[in-house]
Amino acid sequence: MSNATYETKREELQTYFDRTAKDKWVALTSNTPVSRIRETVRKGREEMRNTLLEWLPEDLSGARILDAGCGTGMLAIEAARRGADVLAIDISPALIEEAQKRMPTDLSKGKIEFLAGDMMDPGHGEFDYIVAMDSFIHYPLPEIMNFLEALGPRAKENMSFTFAPSTPALEVMKAVGKIFPKNDRSPAIEPVKERKMVEAIAESEKLRGDGYNSFRMRKISTGFYKSQALELKRS
Fold this sequence. Notes:
Elements: H1 3-20, H2 22-28, H3 36-54, E1 64-68, H4 74-81, E2 85-90, H5 93-101, E3 112-116, E4 127-132, H6 141-151, E5 155-163, H7 168-177, H8 194-203, H9 205-209, E6 212-222, E7 225-234
Parallel strand pairs: 1-2, 1-4, 2-3, 4-5
Antiparallel strand pairs: 5-7, 6-7
């Protein structure tokens, strides 16, 4: 992957989630009342999280999971309740601090390790399952493919992620967003056409070589939340 591009985007995202959007993100991922617009985002994220959890086994006893871009830890907590040992990583120390505060007391110590850092660091080792919910949506397709090809060998079973599906409305929103001053807008979402994503995966010799020969998808669209889940499975 392009280290320069990746590092620049990581710094931008960390600044956004640690400073600009921390309080909004904490509220969005809690039961705190939010605006109607944010309520649609909250509902969509809940549906997406449930989808990714449905794609994992009900019994995860003994399984090791990477929650790449864990935010405040909601998916990690549910996976741990099924018995998984979860490494939950986020770029934002502020969100990791919030996730640690929300750690349920009924989960045994060590079931979740919350870590502020780089989700792509190979030093984190291998996992049975890798999940990246809305962690790739700020990157273009070539960068997403770099992520998948780098993570692929480290997932023993499968890996699931989401991308921002390209729609006319999203393309317009992206274009309009560029009008505003940089300090007044969130990091850009990079829409990806579903057909292009499927073609890129099919053409990846690296993914095929790692045994990823099948996949399934599900699109979630609730108001201002639009995201598409894709699970890559080893044959």
